[in-house]
Known about the structure:
Structural class: mainly alpha
Distance between the termini: 51 Å
Low-confidence stretches: none
Number of domains: 1
Strand content: 5-15%
Strand order of the largest sheet: 1-2-3
Number of strands: 3
Amino acid sequence: MAEPLSLQHIARLICVQNLLDLTNGKDVTEYLKLAYHSAVTEDLLNHMVQFYPKKLTDEILAGLASPHIQNLRLVNCTRIKPSKFIKIVPYCKKLHGLDLKKCSQMMLPDFFVLIKMAGFHLTSLSVEDCTTVDDSVAHVNL
Length: 142
């Protein structure tokens, strides 16, 4: 017999499902601006990336990204656009790790130049399984 799910896991699933229901075909930027950034929103963001990466949009990321986040995992989040992400990053003052595995749409040299110009000094960057990484992307990040 399988182990029952923990209440915390069930609560996360309900929150993520409700968030996805709210965002279904709507611009929820204003709604998410009212979100109080905390460990809860960061936990929801991590849960969403783990279980629903292809449903994570720029607007949801903007609403859930905490100013305290240090490591941002966006593995296989193909709906995040570099131009929108650059507008989100300034709110994440403590960001020093960025995991962009399987996010080939983010592999633009100018994207990484803008991150540096915004004052971020990434100490950890993962671009594993990104098919569009080339010498110019690698050079900008060295």
